Queue: 4 jobs
Job 1
Amino acid sequence: MNVSGWRRTKGGGHVDAERFSRVVHMDRWELDEWLGSLTRVAASTRSVYQRDLRDAARWLGEIGRDDPATVTRRDLRGYLARLDRDGYARRTTARKAS
């Protein structure tokens, strides 16, 4: 990896190291597999769940919880508190918590 945060790929191209790290982090959560298991929900509902889960996983990664097995109840309460501080409506926070 060079100083600018880009790294060379096998084919000689470059990939943004930060973006690559986020993608690898999301793979640990197996979100696509979980979303695929939702067979009786509307596409719009699945899209909302996907957005909510990716947001939560991203925030948890920012506090060092890259693996779902390491997430604690305190972490989840911290995430919900962040949503409250950010001005999300109670209904939205409840949906994200579900």
Job 2
Amino acid sequence: MNDVLRDYKEIRKDFEIDDSIFNAEPDKVRRIKEIVLNRLDQVERTLILLYADCGSLRDLGKRLGMSYGSVKRVLDPIKEKILKEYYEMTAKEIKERL
């Protein structure tokens, strides 16, 4: 588990928002980063960043010593939360522009 924590810390550094390029990022990426960094709890954030680093549920399962099904059951609600937050954020920004 210490390897997973070390990996998370390294990935987290790569994922931080750099304000100097914040406006240069496409809106979709900016919104998703904001959600992951500010609206997920620590466990959710760790899992989604590890998933992004691994690239697949199977690879994440291997890394964590979990089955594909277990990883899917844990990650699906996190992905749904990100999508829900993303669409709410997008709708709010559109309303503000009108």
Job 3
Amino acid sequence: MGTKFRTTCAAIRGSLPLTFTFSKENSKIHEDFEANKKIKIETGDDYANLIIASIEPADSGKYSCSLSNAFGASRVTWALEVRGLILEKTNLKTKNF
């Protein structure tokens, strides 16, 4: 469909180093931007961006971002529904574990 999707997972506070992991339908998303120019994950000390270069209905699903350090972990989940050219991010939930 040609539309780029970007979401950011960021820590408000926490001890470094932080580890970020994005998942779709409980399966880890691996960056494959070099292979097919579709998915890119950008990271900094306290944030990570998930970028889908050309989003399409097949990208719809339940996504999550997990954040961890030596002291614990947290996860946020959301549902992404791609309908034509409209993007909706719904059901935002935060879960500490």
Job 4
Amino acid sequence: MIDVVIVIAGLAGGLLAGLFGVGGGVIFVPVLVLGLGLTQLHAEAASLLAILPTAVIGTWRQIRFGNTDVRAALVIGVEIGRAPSELQSHLNLVCRLL
């Protein structure tokens, strides 16, 4: 029975995501929580895990087509990751001084 629910949720999620242009997670996460009884954390993790192969293959193909500036992407990614951690370290320092 659960297999049928999963298949129907997948078909409905794909159809609605394609029709309305929303990400599948908008549909899949509530179905996983309410329909299959997963916790919110597990439903979000499953949704993100489902996105991973698509993102990796899409990135690989765009690099092959020459549409991606890998150096710029790495610089942006490093800066986005660095800024919050730098802010956190400054806040920790201020808290220790007070």
